[in-house]
Amino acid sequence: MQKLGYVFVATIAILSSFSSNAAIADPRDLSETEARAAKAQVSLKDCLTLEAYQLADELGLLTHLSKLQGLGEHDKHKRGVPLTPESSTLRLELTELVLQTMLQCQETIAEIESEVSTNTEVKAALENKRDGAVKTNAIANIIANGLVSGAGTMLQMPFETTVDSRYELPGEAVEAAGNLMSGSLGGLAIKQNNGEGLSVGIKPTMLAKIFKRPNDADTEYPDVIWRYLNAVPPSGRKDGLTRRQLLIQRWEDLGRIPSQSTPKGRLYMRALAGTVPLKKKMNIALLTDRIAMLLDLRAEVNQIYKELLNIMLVMRAL
Amino acid sequence: MNLNSRKRFVSSNKASKILLLVAQLLWATCPSIAASTSFAPYSTGSEFGIVDADIGLKIIGPLHLSEGKVSIKNNEISVLSDSADPSAEAELGGAVLACRRVVEGRSKYVRGYAVFTRGYSVTALENSAMQDSVTAVDGITRVGRIVDVSVNLLRIKTAQGIQILQTSKITELKSPCAFVFSLPLVASSAAASPTVLADSEPEQITFTPTPLDGLSLASAKPSTKTLQAQLTERHIAKRAIKIGLFTAAVGACFAIPVAIGVITPRPKGLSSASSSSSGSSGN
Predict the structure, then answer these.
(1) CA-to-CA distance for A89 and A83, rounded, in angstroms?
(2) Do A198 and B121 touch (CB under 8 A)?
(3) In angstroms, what separates the C-alpha of A198 from chain B's closest C-alpha?
(4) Per-residue tens of pLDDT for chain A, all 318 residues
(5) Among B13, B44, B155, B167, which residue is least crowded by beta carbons within 10 Å?
(6) Contact B64 A217 (CB under 8 A)
């Protein structure tokens, strides 16, 4: 019996060891880091996204990553064993370039956010003024339609048993005047609904360079960000449009700007870019469009962080 | 890593950096937009002449142009911000004056003044606090505001009125809208024949603002109020007028018909009916 028990336990142990070996050998059980490391040892293109590969090429990081790949120090890196000086230098340089790009990206975003903030404040002030004007208009309408028209109707009512038509014509006249006033105030309300316009001189925004209009030193883009915006996204598109052109096309499709092929479209684009003086033309609609477009631009620039993260993860995996 | 392999790594890294730097320098000297310039003296032996040029430009004054282009045709200059757009309107337009050939050692240049008076971006150059100054061959300096410039004539509005000067007689010009330009002249043949230049290197093409020191400051108020001032200003007089007009209109709506009703005599039927009822009650 004792011997049978030993045989039984040994059989169970052998069978369980086979099953656990099969689990370790299954690549689907590898962690994400290990999976990436496995891919990175074979080919950088397989573990970098197309956009990250494009950005790495743009920044000159592919050479560094290829050298790291050649050194094959992933296991040492994982176990915390000191790396070779060459590997450390490459990693340091990669990190510096990535950090520099991040800060340049942040610089651009900071300028965009500053403009969004300023435009939002001005828009809020204009909306407050518009609301005040509309409220005053509503009060005037109550007086015109309620008081004046009502008084006119009352004047037409007979005050004696015998009809006294002395007040009929005046009553009709007062009622008509009240209706006319009400109609005029309604028409004025439609105009007031757009809000008033402010006058402003030339002050380029971050949209100026996007539209290829003259900008100034404050609205200049770092080279890497400008090249990123002027690059064709590598995934999916066959029309050859750059990120900058795709942004403009989206704004045209959404109706934020008229088509640039028309003079009206080009002039509105200049107004959005701040490259023409505006005389009482900076209104709520223009500011709304400008803020939305700046936010779109910020989102596009922010995409660089995804690519930079991908590059850093690959560097960690090598 | 042993010392030899470390040395090899460092030297290969340095070599790749040097190669990259050389490549960047080579790329920088190849202008993205081919520049072509020609200069033709007005007459044989004349120092001044006519310039034709098509050159790429990135910065002019405070304006940064991502794909800028300067086009000079028969001394008329226009600046585009997008050279790739054939329908682009000029950001700046004007004329070039006092164009002359200058020799400095072994290098030759075409230099002159570029004055901008029109274009979407000309207000970015203007400065309402500064006056323009133009000096002619007669030695007299006119101070005021340049209102128009063409290839042959310049109009300046001074305290004495608008004065017209021939551009060929201008020796010095100072204005926020004026620039001293310099285009390199690579090769020239006989002075009387048009001189065609090879492609100019971008870094030798300059548009320098004219010196503004010494220009008297005009006591001009800024043409546009700040946004803060516009948002906070209260048009009290306008408001009072609007309220007054509205009140008068409402009052008139009531007063005129009531006055008509009071003035208008009562209808005869009503008058006799009321008098007969009062008489019968008395009986």
Answers:
(1) 10
(2) no
(3) 7
(4) 677 776 766 666 565 555 444 434 455 555 666 677 677 777 777 788 888 899 999 999 989 988 888 887 877 777 778 888 888 999 999 999 999 999 999 999 999 999 999 999 999 999 999 999 899 889 988 888 888 888 888 877 776 655 566 777 777 888 888 888 888 888 988 888 888 899 888 899 999 999 999 999 999 999 999 999 999 998 766 688 999 999 999 999 998 888 888 888 889 999 999 999 898 889 999 999 999 999 999 999 999 999 999 899 888 887
(5) B44
(6) yes
Q: Which residues of A touch B122 (CB under 8 A)?
A: none
Residue A53, phi then psi, degrees to nearest 5: -65, -40
Q: B138: helix, coil or strand?
A: coil
Q: Which of residues 224-263 of A touch B (CB under 8 A)?
A: 226, 261
Instruction: Note the Cα B266 to chain centre separation in Å.
Output: 74
Q: Is the backbone of residue B188 left (phi > 0), alpha (psi -120 to 50) or beta?
A: beta
Cβ-defined contact of B66 to A201 (cutoff 8 Å): no
Neighbouring CB atoms inside 10 A of A158's CB total 11
User: And the tokens for A59?
Assistant: 């920044």
Residue length of chain B: 283
List of residues 6+ apart from B153 with CB closer than 8 A: B164, B165, B166, B167
**DSSP structural state of residue B168:** G
DSSP 8-state assignment for residue A199: E
- Measured in angstroms, the CA of A84 and the nearest CA of chain B are apart by 6
Q: What beta strand segments (E) does A196-262 contain?
A: 198-200
A126/B231 touch (CB, cutoff 8 Å), yes or no: yes
Nearest CA to A226 out of A209, A202, A247 is that of A209
